[in-house]
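Q: What residues go here?
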């Protein structure tokens, strides 16, 4: 989870804990409440669901399933080939230059 997401979640939760009207708005229309509070406009396809726990209901949120390395992450071989500007010899994939 990114630091920005953690900070935004904390900001929203703290406001909801202090401001009953904001909490109600967040439960009724979470996307609009989020956008108004943060100033971040979300894509129309983006959905936010807000659930309020009580003494009988606890919610466990699972992260998305990742298949292998993420698109933004380098594999070990790719990382080794760019580390310090080194070539493929660093990972043992090629001869060392002379």
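A:
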């Amino acid at each position: 989870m990114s630091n920005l997401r953690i900070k935004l979640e904390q900001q929203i939760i703290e406001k909801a804990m202090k401001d009953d009207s904001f909490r109600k708005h967040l439960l009724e229309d979470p996307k609009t409440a989020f956008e108004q509070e943060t100033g971040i406009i979300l894509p129309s396809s983006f959905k936010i669901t807000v659930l309020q726990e009580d003494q009988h209901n606890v919610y466990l949120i699972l992260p998305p399933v990742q298949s292998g390395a993420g698109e933004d992450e380098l594999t070990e071989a790719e990382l080794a080939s760019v580390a310090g500007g080194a070539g493929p010899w660093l990972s043992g994939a090629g001869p060392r230059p002379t």
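A: Context that may help when evaluating the design: The radius of gyration is 22 Å. Residues 85-91 have pLDDT under 50 and may be disordered.
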